[in-house]
């Protein structure tokens, strides 16, 4: 972490995000808009986990519910299994996880190593404060 990533008190700057219904869903040290994008659908690529143990693209999600049954999408070059990540309050899909079989062909189930955040599905707390 560089000095630019910290507040004057020495703490890491955290940006918090809300669902469009205003439910707090999580936070990250790296603003979502600056995270790498997936070419397929322009979703932002984030790594769920502990801020202290992961890269700057880490997102801490506190109120996301993950569907237990995947949605299968047909793509030009095959198919993809996605598990929707939804707001725990209103059920809005804010992102998704891929099925493990999409990555290693070994087993199925949610691959929680990477969260793909849909564009315009979350609002930063600062942006919400400015609009009120």
How would you describe this protein?
With 132 residues, the chain is mainly beta. It has two helices and ten strands, in the order ββββββββαββα. Strand 6 (71-75) and strand 7 form a beta hairpin. The chain has one domain (3-125): Metal Binding Protein, Guanine Nucleotide Exchange Factor, Chain A, CATH 2.170.150. Helices cover 8% and strands 37% of the residues. Strands 1, 2, 3, 4, 5, 6, 7, 8, 9 and 10 form a ten-stranded mixed beta sheet that branches. One of its GO terms (biological process) is endoplasmic reticulum to Golgi vesicle-mediated transport. It comes from Cryoendolithus antarcticus.
Number of strands: 10
Large-scale geometry: globular
- Residue stretches low in confidence (pLDDT < 50, at least 5 long) are 1-7
Strand residues, percent? 35-45%
CATH architecture title: Beta Complex
What count of structural domains?
1
CATH class: Mainly Beta
Report the average pLDDT across residues.
Answer: 82
CATH third-level topology: Metal Binding Protein, Guanine Nucleotide Exchange Factor, Chain A
Described by strand count, sense and barrel closure, the largest sheet is:
10 strands, mixed
Q: Helix/strand-derived class?
A: mainly beta
What letter string, H or E per element, gives the SSE order? EEEEEEEEHEEH
* Number of continuous helical runs: 2
Radius of gyration: 16 Å
């Amino acid at each position: 972490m560089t000095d630019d990533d910290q507040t004057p008190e020495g703490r890491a700057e955290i940006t918090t995000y809300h669902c469009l219904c205003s439910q707090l869903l999580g936070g990250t040290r790296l603003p979502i808009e600056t995270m790498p994008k997936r070419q397929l659908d322009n979703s932002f690529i984030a790594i769920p986990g502990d801020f202290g143990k992961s890269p700057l693209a880490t997102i801490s999600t506190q109120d996301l519910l993950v569907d237990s049954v995947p949605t299968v999408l047909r793509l030009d070059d095959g198919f993809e299994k996605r598990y929707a990540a939804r707001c725990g309050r209103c059920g809005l899909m804010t992102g998704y996880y891929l099925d493990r079989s999409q990555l290693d062909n070994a087993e199925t189930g949610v691959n929680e190593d990477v969260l793909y955040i849909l564009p315009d599905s979350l609002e930063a707390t600062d942006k919400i404060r400015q609009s009120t």
